[in-house]
UniProtKB/TrEMBL annotation:
InterPro entries: TTL/TTLL_fam, Tubulin_polyglutamylase. The chain crosses the membrane at residues 26-47. The keyword Transmembrane applies. It comes from the Eukaryota. This is Tubulin polyglutamylase TTLL7. The keyword NAD does not apply. It holds the Pfam family TTL. Keywords: Membrane, Transmembrane, Transmembrane helix.
Length: 500
């Protein structure tokens, strides 16, 4: 009897245990199971989301672009369309950050308004203006400079007496009164001159200009200054800008400004009969169309271009000391470069005269769409010359490592004059500074940058340092300019492509 009770008790206990186990299993499967599955599912989602974020960050790091910033006083950027296009093609992205950028493209001089940030420039940051270049682009300062290639001019009212003496001596000459704001240009009689109008000047007028099909014209040459102290200057040889007066010069009438003043609505080269065929049918550049026309009339265009290059070199050397002084306020001059357009006029004997120099020259093709190619090629070549359009894909203009820097230009690329350097044992000798043991960090940087510019100049032509010739005189140059010219002489001896 007792055994039966024990058996029943055991069976009962086992049944209870079995029910508990079944209940627990049901509980686990119905409640805990989904909880665990939900946990695993949400863990997977969390992992996947973070993995995606990490991938996005990696892509963002891989796709970072060098940055450019725009500065204009009036916030009008329509005229900078082609600058934007070229920069985007080179992989740049625009930023509005005041400090973190690689290139600042300023339509107006930024040095007063942005003075605080200009004094905190990083070595890799580049700006498209040099402090002090206003001495070249200011119309009064330029026109009253003493140069073989600038017609006599007199500031009004400061040089009124000198002007009267000059007109008495050369009574047959006529003069044009100009203001520094590029407006109000006209020929005036002596009695009509305002002697109280500040910021203006009187300049001798070319009475017998060189005409094509009866039209007076000017020639716009694009010039880049990449360095001062020492000076390096280039001109764009890919093309120049010809602008013609819309009304024929003769019979001359000083009341009709469109006969002798080139305005915004100028006559383009493709509407000038004698040049139209060269330019539109034969697809020559403006410069080559002009050259062909000149040769067809038994004249030599080489004289024009040689004189233009001499005029550019002369006027920039004349203003060099002022630019150097202005740059010193901002520390590192290597941050700056300058693109200007210098306009020239010709007399009937093809003598060359500087008319004006344009700071931030017009690069908009809105008025003449056919000029788009010219402007974009100038900008593209400019960025190559100054190292902004780099061959190496980078997310900034910063130097990333020494080996990458040396891949572009190494010490061996800047060595010259082996016969001199093997005997140099005194770094106080000026010429020994051209030799590696006597390099200062500044001198070495000058040669490295000069080498890179030579490699990247594309359709730019160096006019200073000037073409290397035998017995060339250096005595009128600063010591740094003399040293750089001597370095180019050394490169020229090793490779003729460096001679010009």
């Amino acid at each position: 009897m007792l055994n039966k009770q024990n058996v029943h008790s055991t069976i009962y206990t086992q049944m209870i245990n079995l029910k508990v186990k079944i209940f627990l299993k049901i509980f686990l499967y119905s409640i805990m199971g989904p909880i665990i599955l939900y946990y695993l599912f949400f863990s997977f989602l969390y992992y996947h989301e973070n993995l995606t974020k990490m991938q996005i960050k990696v892509l963002e790091m891989e796709e970072r672009n060098p940055l450019y910033r725009i500065y204009t006083r009036n916030n009008n950027i329509e005229h900078l369309k082609h600058v934007f296009i070229v920069l985007e093609r080179l992989g740049f992205k625009q930023t509005h950050d005041e400090y973190n950028w690689d290139l600042l493209w300023a339509h107006d001089y930024p040095f007063r308004t942005l003075n605080f940030s200009m004094n905190k420039l990083k070595p890799h940051q580049r700006i498209n203006h040099f402090p002090g270049c206003g001495y070249i682009t200011n119309k009064v300062d330029l026109s009253t400079s003493e140069s073989r290639y600038i017609l006599p001019a007199f500031k009004i009212p400061e040089q009124h007496e000198e002007f009267l003496l000059y007109t008495n001596q050369y009574s047959e000459k006529i003069f044009v009164q100009k203001s520094n704001n590029h407006r109000g240009i006209s020929i005036k009689n002596i009695s009509e001159i305002s002697i109280t109008e500040t910021g203006s000047f009187m300049q001798e007028f070319i009475q017998r200009p060189f005409l094509i099909d009866g039209y007076k014209f000017d020639i716009g040459v694009y010039v880049v200054i990449t360095s001062v102290n020492p000076l390096r200057v280039y001109v764009y040889k890919g093309d120049v800008l010809f602008r013609f007066c819309p009304i024929k010069y003769y019979p001359f009438n000083s009341e009709i400004l469109d006969k002798y003043i080139v305005g915004d609505d100028y006559l383009p080269i493709w509407n000038v009969p004698s040049l139209k065929y060269y330019y539109t049918k034969l697809k020559f550049s403006m410069k080559n169309s002009f050259d062909a026309y000149i040769r067809s009339h038994g004249k030599y265009p080489e004289k024009v271009w040689n004189d233009i290059h001499e005029a550019i070199k002369e006027i920039i050397l004349l203003k060099e000391s002022y630019i150097i002084k202005a740059v010193k306020r901002f520390g590192n001059e290597r941050n700056f470069f300058e693109l200007i357009r210098i306009d020239f006029a010709l007399d009937e004997d093809l003598n060359v005269y500087i008319m004006e120099a344009n700071m931030s020259p017009n690069l908009s093709s809105a008025h003449y769409p056919a000029n788009q190619l010219l402007y974009e090629q100038i900008i593209f070549n400019l960025f190559s010359l100054v190292g902004i359009g780099q061959r190496i894909r980078k997310d900034s203009l910063k130097i990333r490592n020494k080996m990458e820097e040396q891949m572009e230009v190494a010490d061996k690329n800047i060595m010259v004059l082996p016969e001199l350097c093997i005997e140099c044992n005194d770094c106080f000798r000026v010429e020994c500074q051209l030799c590696s043991p006597c390099f200062t960090p500044e001198i070495k940087m000058i040669f490295l940058q000069s080498y890179l510019e030579h490699q990247n100049k594309m359709d730019f032509q160096r006019i200073f340092p000037p073409p290397i010739t035998k017995n060339m005189s250096l005595k009128d140059y600063t010591l740094k300019n003399q040293l750089l010219v001597r370095w180019y002489q050394g490169k020229c001896e090793l490779d003729l492509s460096w001679c010009s």
